[in-house]
């Protein structure tokens, strides 16, 4: 395949690599597929087949990059890039030299274009993703990579014509009207969001009387402790807000009697559906 064909083929290539991670028939007698086990800091463990060629194990550049939350693309006909916020990895066809976060790095081998996939040496790619090759099985060729980072920096949700977004660098809830583009920001006080150690989820619930409840849960992956942010909206206006830190168990917000329970570090407030009025305050 000529270099100038890359840019037109890369979208199809990536889709194929996701849909068919176990590869296709090899076309080079000096190359074969071996198992790659990827262990991620956020708790994921993935298994795919990867390339072993001329004694060197390679990793799929676009597949592993996408799994890490990075955006992939082509900067030119022979330059591929993975990037997100401050993370940037660039490789060039025909060159052993790559760029990682502005630094020149020798990969040891040039990138390989093999069966419509782009591969780079796995030791380089693991290190670029802040991980390492932990083990290589000499009998099967299986490679185990550990400590790979997740660079996801934005969390999204949508409800009734509004987009809700949290950026890890800022930690506030940004609300955008999809029709007018008008934006509003609500401080949450979530600092230094780390998706490798914590899980952040955004959920939406509607009450019987059309109040929108947005819950944001920031949970420690190891301990299970979580901070619960609850916001209550009426006609898109924020009428109630609470945050409880270090919860051990899940908290039921919508009660069977139709009321809403908002929990903070000291109290539980019983809220009337429809009006948002506080009916009762119970000490925790």
UniProtKB/TrEMBL annotation:
A single Pfam family it belongs to is Cu_amine_oxidN1
Specify the Copper amine oxidase-like N-terminal domain's residue ranges. Answer: 75-137
Q: Where is the signal peptide?
A: 1-26
Query: Which Gene3D superfamilies is this protein grouped with?
Result: Copper amine oxidase-like, N-terminal domain (3.30.457.10)
- UniProtKB keywords: Signal
- What this protein is called in its record is Copper amine oxidase-like N-terminal domain-containing protein
Q: Please give the organism.
A: Paenibacillus alvei TS-15
């Amino acid at each position: 395949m000529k270099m100038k064909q890359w840019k037109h083929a890369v979208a199809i290539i990536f889709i194929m690599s996701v849909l068919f991670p176990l590869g296709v028939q090899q076309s080079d007698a000096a190359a074969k597929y071996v198992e790659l086990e990827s262990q991620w800091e956020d708790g994921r463990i993935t298994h795919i087949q990867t390339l072993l060629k001329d004694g060197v194990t390679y990793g799929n550049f676009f597949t592993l990059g996408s799994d890490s939350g990075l955006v992939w693309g082509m900067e030119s006909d022979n330059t591929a890039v993975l990037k997100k916020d401050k993370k940037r990895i660039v490789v060039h066809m025909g060159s052993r030299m790559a760029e990682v976060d502005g630094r020149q790095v020798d990969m040891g081998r040039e990138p390989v274009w093999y069966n419509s996939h782009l591969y780079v040496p796995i030791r380089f790619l693991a290190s670029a993703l802040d991980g390492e090759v932990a083990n290589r099985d000499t009998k099967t060729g299986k490679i185990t990579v550990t400590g790979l980072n997740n660079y996801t920096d934005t969390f999204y949700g949508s409800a009734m014509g509004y987009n809700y977004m949290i950026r890890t660098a800022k930690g506030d809830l940004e609300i955008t009207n999809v029709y007018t583009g008008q934006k509003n920001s609500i401080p949450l006080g979530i600092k230094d969001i780390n998706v490798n150690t914590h899980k952040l989820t955004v959920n939406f619930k509607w009450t019987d009387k059309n109040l929108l409840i947005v819950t944001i849960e920031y949970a420690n992956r190891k301990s299970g402790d979580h901070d619960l942010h609850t916001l209550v909206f009426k006609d898109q206006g924020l009428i109630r807000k609470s945050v409880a830190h270090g919860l051990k168990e899940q908290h039921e917000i919508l009660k069977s009697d139709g009321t809403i329970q908002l929990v903070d570090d000291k109290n539980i407030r019983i809220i009337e559906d429809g009006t948002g009025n506080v009916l009762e305050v119970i000490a925790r």
